Amino acid sequence: MMINPGEVVKSQMSRVPWPYSMLVSGLSFTLFFLQTGLDMMRSGQIGTATMILITMLGLLYGTAGVALLAVMAWALSQAGERGYTVDWAISTFALGYSATLVYSLTGLVFSLALGWKTAVAFGVTGVLWALRPTLFTIKQMSGERTAFSIALSTLCGAILLLGWALLGRLGA
């Protein structure tokens, strides 16, 4: 998915049930938000309970949030008219966060082992890496409309990062 997302989207996504795919995005955002909570706790902004709350919000964000984003993109791209189901869109969007999972896991290792603040360096970078699979997914759902796909992918990325920033402020 990280190296050739276009081919993976075209050939493999119909084989993965969406509940399994949601494990990838759910775990990705759980670890990303855990990094955020750890960074905030280290700087004295929040306590342990709030860090746990932020982590649980990451799980919700990575499952329900990504699913809602996929449904929005599916509807806006009129994918149903091209034979793509909502289940396919959710599965494809969720699996697109495999890079985010790798970055979040790596960032958590650096955070715990070295005490670094890693949410921006690793978590945000992982979300940005997911934009490429998102772009290819939307492009396929929209009938290869490139400009539309770029605009909607940008909007999806902006919504996710803005939501992360707002949820992170709840703890402060």
Give a verbal description of the structure.
- This protein is mostly helical.
- Helices cover 79% and strands 0% of the residues.
- The protein has helices at 5-11, 18-42, 48-76, 86-95, 98-114, 119-129, 131-141, 146-171.
- The protein is elongated and about 50 Å long.
- The N and C termini lie far apart (35 Å).
- The model has no long low-confidence stretch (mean pLDDT 89).
Please describe the structure with a list of short key phrases separated by commas or semicolons:
8 helices, mainly alpha, 172 residues, elongated
Shape: elongated
Helix content: over 70%
Gyration radius from CA atoms, angstroms: 16 Å
Instruction: Give me the number of helical elements.
Output: 8
Unreliable segments of 5+ consecutive residues: none
In total, how many beta strands?
Answer: 0
Tell me, rounded to a whole number, the average pLDDT: 89
Q: Whole-Å distance between the termini?
A: 35 Å
What structural category characterises the helix and strand content? mainly alpha
Return the string of H and E elements. Answer: HHHHHHHH
Q: Sketch the major β-sheet.
A: none
Topology:
Layout lengths: L4 H7 L6 H25 L5 H29 L9 H10 L2 H17 L4 H11 L1 H11 L4 H26 L1
Summarize the structure.
The protein is an all-alpha fold. The protein has helices spanning 5-11, 18-42, 48-76, 86-95, 98-114, 119-129, 131-141, 146-171. Helix 1 packs across helix 7 (131-141), helix 2 (18-42) packs parallel to helix 5 and helix 3 (48-76) packs antiparallel against helix 8.
